[in-house]
Amino acid sequence: TSSKIPKQINIFRDPNSNMARVAKAKMQNPAAIPFYFTESGFGSSWQKPAELHTIFEKLRLSSSVSASASSSSTSIDYKKRIKMSIRQQRESLPIFKFREEIIKAVTDNPVLIVIAETGSGKTTQIPQFLIEAGFILRGKIACTQPRRFAAMSVATRVADEYGCIIGQEVGYKIRFEDCSNPNTIIKYMTDGILLRECLSDANLDSYSVIILDEAHERTMHTDVLFGLLKEAVKRRPKLRLVISSATLDYAKFSQFFDNAKVLQIPGSMFPVETFYYTYQVTTDYLNAALNTVLNIHMREPDGDILLFLTGQEEIERACETLEEYIEKNRSRFNLDLIILPMFSALPPDMQSDVLLPAPKKCRKVIIATNIAEASVTIDGIKFVVDCGFAKQKINDPKTGMDMLTIIPISQASANQRLGRAGRTAPGKCYRLYSEKAYNEELLPETIPEIQRANLSQVVLHLKAIGVKNILEFDFMDPPHKDNILTSLRQLFLLGALDRNGDVTDLGRKMTELPVEPNLAKMLLVSVGLKCTDEIITIIAMLSAGNVFYRPRKKQTLADEKKKSFEHAVGDHLRALNVYKKWEINHYSSEWCKTNYLNEKKLLEAQDVRENLLTIMDKYKYEIYSAGFNYERVQMAICSGFFQNIARRPAISGRNNKVYKTIDEQECFIHPSSSLFHQLPSWIVYNNLTETTKKFLNENTVINPLWLQQLVPDMYRVTDFNPNADLDDFLHDLIF
Ligand code: CDP
Ligand code: MG
């Protein structure tokens, strides 16, 4: 059985610290906002209304003036900028003065590291400088972004500056969307896309310069690209590599890239005054955050507000709460407040709204995840409210699956957030944690994703590129050896690698599909099982997330509607049911409303579904529907998620609801699952979350005999007894 259980990476410096405890509590109840306003001002169920003013005063009193920020004359008020011509705007950016120096440095050095404040013009200007300097004669220019939204919005801006239609000379490419053509010379793309391009062209021959932007984010894909491109530059002496970021440990980066040249462009930051929260951080930081926002709105003459929260659900609730309050109390404020959410799952056009300047007599408040930390420049922000937390992917070393977890941010992130307030004028930053917490509980730097997330996809990619020994790959910060081994084992069980660790045909096909290895396996198996139509919809629905909407006042009704979609086989088929009924009802908005379904998410699923259909078509896979033969769908799910098997020991009787996973964790079916009352003996689950108990989410009934058939290397029984314990059934696998 799983002999190699990697060590847990220590994300919290001190798991008993206050910040760590808040993060954990928040995870258990993300939606809890015990927030209401009283007649006399602001208040909450946890704080006496009268105290609110004091909180704010305390915030003021404990202020520490930020030392790092220095005012500079190079910055131009953004209101002036709006009125300038595009050329004047470009020339007003801090990076413009370094144009010649950048061109020369790129010409003379194989690798260049550029550091400049967010908003200086790195992302939009450097590719244009290089094009203007004639690099195009040697090939296209690629610029990677960790986030899809940043790639799209920046490409749109540069197309404007360049004077072309987006997708022509200037374009972008992100997962499921290619807005570029053979004439594209400046191509913005996510780092994942460039990694994919390395698969078919290891030297990236069509490019003259590769810019790895936002390098400080240290996404898994960027980290892998560091290692791959370091080698590519040696093989192809004419290739140029630029690493750019607002903040990073340049000594470390320079050393990794064989003493690469570093160019630091002085920032144009205005001073930002910092305020710390003197109360102990509690789980109601949301309450404090909203109160702070309203206080700013009430007391400060102008300037937009940026509030950092952790995730979509929290942000949506915060927007709702704020909107409700503003609606009722409009007369108390001098300015109108425009409330804008921002998170990566938001449709792109709604994300772009945050970039538009607020109209006269209005103030914007943007409530964002850490998407707004560095990769997107939002002009006009004067106030930042920082909750001190972020959602991050953390790998559960026991199952090898990633979980999104709320954790305290790092000091580097906190300062990056603070910096958002001083781009266009002096600003203020309210940190909803104490100075002591900042100094003692936050880690100096964020742990790179490669050291905390599941490596399977990356390992498969590296293998497919031809990297024989992943353990010896040149990582800037290597992942834990045991995590690499877990991924190799998982890929072997998926059939993507053979016993020698070489990529199989199946593995190669998996790399062609833009989804994680277990989903890719599910898709490929579905082709043989003739149920691809269903599996594509299920994958699309899984990627869209929870589509059921449960308004506070109509919970019973919403629950009833939800029940009408239930399926005896489980939640994957419930999701399929929802999608199919939506389809039958001509994708109607009205129908979504009456059935308490989140239309935005369904549209997202529709989008993913169409993209996957196109890709399957490109590789000439035939798309069949299983009709009513659900067993095939269940088997396909099993083939990808065979490590997520749970069994309810039969001897325990009807009242015992405990399930055991393959690594012996005791779990329960989540009450939101359609199998909650049914309690089947064997299930496959999509993920495991831990709140008050360990819960299994998105479950489907399976027949254990399939496991033996689908994953003989992992499950084997000579004399099968369906009542056997899971461990009798697990075959000892030495890998
Ligand atoms: O990459 P960096 O943070 O250094 O700056 P940038 O993204 O190149 O942005 C430079 C300037 O372009 C910003 O100050 C914005 O005013 C403007 N910009 C924009 O108007 N719209 C965008 N989508 C991106 C940038
Ligand atoms: Mg940028």
UniProtKB/TrEMBL annotation:
Record-level Gene Ontology MF annotations: ATP binding; hydrolase activity; RNA binding; RNA helicase activity
Residues covered by the Helicase C-terminal domain: 285-466
Keywords: ATP-binding, Helicase, Hydrolase, mRNA processing, mRNA splicing, Nucleotide-binding, Nucleus
GO biological process, one term: developmental process involved in reproduction
Keyword Nucleotide-binding applies: yes
Positions of the Helicase ATP-binding domain: 103-266
One GO location term (cellular component): catalytic step 2 spliceosome
Enzyme Commission number: 3.6.4.13
Catalytic activity, as annotated: ATP + H2O = ADP + phosphate + H(+)
Protein name (database record): RNA helicase
Species, as recorded: Chironomus riparius
Shown residues within the full chain: 146 to 880 of 880
